[in-house]
Amino acid sequence: MVKAKVEKTLVNFAENLCYIAMLVFVVIAALDKLGVQTGSFAVVVGAAGLAIGFALQGSLGNFAAGVMLVIFKSFKVGDFVELAGKMGTVQEIQIFNTILNSPDNVRIIIPNGQVTGSNIMNFTANGTRRIDLVVGVSYDDDLKKTRQVIENVILSDERILKETGIYDSRIRAWGKQR
User: In Å, how far are 91, 113, 154 from 8, measured between CA atoms?
Assistant: First the structure.
């Protein structure tokens, strides 16, 4: 899958899923070699699966949510996102949870059920972002000069896009009313 350049998230997900499936298969094969009737074992596994399903209801919900995240690709590793009210760069999307690294370098682990159950804000998806700045100016100051200084600072910064619709030179005057 790596050689086929499949997305890293899907590779990790498939790897974990195959590991669990092979582990179950090896245990059943080993029990068959020991003489345990695997036919009756299927009934026991089914009953145990039902009991475990009720006990792990939240985890199974997180698993299903993880499958949905991988299928719908709302975000990928490396995107800066807000998930379940937490902001950070996606480090890993696992079967049961998603790991973020916050701007202040805190590792955040969010269960996938909470991710899919809340708004997903992907700040990286569109490539560019608009930032509105509010500048407070006293009524005693010269507003034309203030506007000119702010526009000069904005226009001299090469990170600012000058295309129509992205650069907006609206300046609001804030201060005490007379």
Answer: 11, 21, 39
Among 18-32, 42-56, 111-125, which stretch is predicted with the lowest mean pLDDT?
Answer: 42-56
As a whole number of angstroms, the distance between CA 102 and CA 109 comes to: 11
Which has the closest alpha carbon to 42: 55, 31, 53?
A: 31
- 1-127 architecture in CATH? Roll (2.30)
pLDDT band of residue 163 (cuts 50, 70, 90) is: low
Pairwise CA distance, residues 169 & 34, whole Å = 78
Per DSSP, 104 falls in state: T
Give me the mean pLDDT over the 3-8 stretch.
Answer: 73
- DSSP states along 44-74: HHHHHHHHHHHHTHHHHHHHHHHHHHHHH-S
Boundaries of every domain in the chain: 1-127, 128-178
Distances 151 to 27, 144, 159, 168 between C-alpha atoms, Å: 70, 11, 14, 10
pTM listed for this prediction: 0.55
- What integer pLDDT is reported at residue 173 of this predicted model? 41
What single DSSP character describes residue 168? -
